[in-house]
Design goal:
The structure is a homodimer of 345-residue chains. Chain A is of the alpha/beta class and 345 residues long. Helix content of chain A is 29%, strand content 25%. Chain A has helices at residues 42-45, 93-96, 127-130, 141-147, 153-163, 179-190, 203-212, 222-231, 248-257, 278-282, 295-307, 326-334, and strands at residues 2-6, 12-16, 28-36, 55-56, 61-68, 80-83, 86-87, 107-108, 121-124, 132-133, 171-175, 195-199, 216-218, 238-243, 258-266, 287-289, 317-322, 340-344. Chain A is globular, with a radius of gyration of 20 Å.
């Protein structure tokens, strides 16, 4: 089969590799139909985090079960499944409280001998704990594009909103107009937010944000964005600030726009982000929560709304490429020419 | 009238001062029946924070309305009222969202010309916004002792629990066995916590904690306490850690006992507390929230349960003194001989 190999910063290659086989009785093999490139795949691509050269890459994929380990109970051959961005056993105490990203048997796609999502096939460890079966057949291409983001970005946007306690009638500011920020807009709308400010200086991304439910586009950054949002909220600020970037500046903006007693839901991977002075929390009773989304825990809750068409973030995929051209996709995302790249292996 | 004067670290005096008079039409004068000494009054007493010498002190009191400004609408002469530990106008955007401690007209008792709660009378600014009327007459001494903690420590313990999202069936660890920690136990029980671990190495305080609803006493501190709680929770930790101390060590304990995806509710006044590395939050999806409790916002919710006898934390008052002997009370609390001192002016 073909799979994407990370060969060092800036070097993405597709190579012929051995087909995966069942190794443990809890494994399945998935034939990948849809995969994509994540903003976090760009971190090693840009040399900002280390990743072993020669490792597989990709952690968002959907496909059909092609082989089953003898102990797998919740799926059968031919089932359409979506994979969350980490492997989880589904049975440890952390998984049982919904914290699948803290699973005691957590594994990462593409590392330590695991296949990556950006390939034609993937051996999935702990298949019952990891995968979610899509309980419908004959889904069209549009619906499949709407389902794939459950794997990561839609679940992550939802996690930002949940971590900040977004609920009916609350006001929200989303910091970050990447795929995750845009999904955070859609998730906030789904949870009933009455006002959703999206910070975006890119008209194309702002347009997608509007489509997903943003009520106000704030075409500014930093202090200027804070001022604008304050002036639109009676100098109060918003109930929930969703931090979907991870830099020192975006955290400052989050603390700036959130009201006294409000919450910051943070999902932007911290990058040279300074410590949080306790005074920043204590001076105004600000809540801070977030990190990697337990996508496996959220997918069953979000899935019905995706299947009904109520929750459709497929517009984040601004280009579709075959696996052979995935290097072009990395380049386009690196240059921010595309929001998110869909791959059909 | 007589009032308590802070005369510098270690120096508490009761002096004759002029009776307060109505200054603004939104004022009332309260004749104080019950007051008390707060752990935070000990900070200037110990010289750990600055407070003007000669200032009044005390911010927890209950009494009867003795004079009314012309614009006061929600109370009448003779009403029994309880005062939250800060003055709030009740009408600004922050007050309207329940963040009365962030009121735009916030004032502190005992400072900038305001009376302190540890005196015979208090002029109350923004009386409608600040005070809560107790809607019952002829309450006995025991009930009045149960009501007074609404002023601060009971509302603060409740705030720790609310900030950590305590609800039906969750597991809680309370760090700190002072009056606030003990009230956090009672508040967690009221909110339905299924298991409440109280860290306490003082048998007398542990006994009060048991009475308030602690299911397990952990007679240890730091890493040893963390180990014990982990071993009792399937190595998971608790859903909610209530930080009621404010030191670097107690914060470490909070991060140590809380489970992945759990929440820290923090009300211990930070004291040389280091910044929070974002990695501490991000590595395990920990939520952090808290600060000064919006007592004025909570009192109407808690009051019915106090009046019905369901929520009774009067046992935190381990000694009662007349106003003239208040200096003894400061000394006893400073030496941790008493949990909390009730003053009858």
């Amino acid at each position: 089969m073909k799979a994407t190999i990370f060969q060092g910063p800036g070097k993405i290659k597709v190579e012929e590799v051995p087909d995966p086989v069942i190794h443990d009785p809890t494994d399945v093999i998935v034939k990948v139909g849809y995969a994509c490139i994540c903003g976090s795949d760009l971190w090693p691509y840009r040399g900002l985090v280390n990743r072993p050269e020669g490792s597989r890459i990709g952690h968002e994929f959907m496909g059909v079960v092609e082989a089953l380990g003898s102990e797998v109970k919740t799926m059968k051959l031919g089932d359409l499944v979506v994979a969350p961005f980490v492997v989880s056993d589904g049975t440890c105490p952390e998984c049982l409280v919904g914290m699948t990203t803290a699973c005691r048997n957590r594994q990462s796609w593409g590392l330590n001998g695991n296949d990556g999502g950006q390939g034609q096939k993937v051996r999935v460890p702990w298949a019952d704990g990891t995968l979610v079966v899509i309980p419908q057949d004959n889904l069209d291409d549009h619906m499949l594009r709407a389902l794939l983001p459950l794997s990561d970005v839609l679940s992550t946007g939802h996690h930002a909103a949940v971590s900040a306690g977004v609920s009916q009638g609350l006001t929200v500011a989303v910091i970050g107009d990447g795929a995750v920020g845009l999904c955070a807009v859609a998730a906030s709308k789904r949870l009933g937010a009455s006002k959703i400010f999206l910070l975006s200086t890119h008209p194309d991304r702002a347009a997608v944000g509007k489509q997903f439910g943003a009520t106000n586009i704030v075409a500014a950054r930093g202090d200027e964005a804070v001022e604008q949002i304050k002036s639109l909220t009676n100098s109060l600020g918003v109930d929930a600030a969703l931090e979907c970037v991870g830099t020192a500046e975006s955290w400052d903006t989050a603390f700036g726009v959130v009201r006294a007693g409000g919450n910051i839901g943070a999902v932007g991977l911290p990058h040279q982000t300074p410590d949080i002075p306790i005074s920043k929390i204590f001076s105004r009773n600000i809540g801070v929560k977030g990190s990697a989304a337990p996508a496996r825990h959220y997918i069953p809750e979000l899935l019905p709304d995706v299947l009904s068409g109520k929750l459709d973030v497929s517009a984040i995929f601004t280009i579709t490429l075959p696996l052979d051209k995935i290097a072009q996709g990395y380049q386009a995302m690196d240059e921010r020419k595309e929001i998110k790249v869909l791959i059909k292996p």
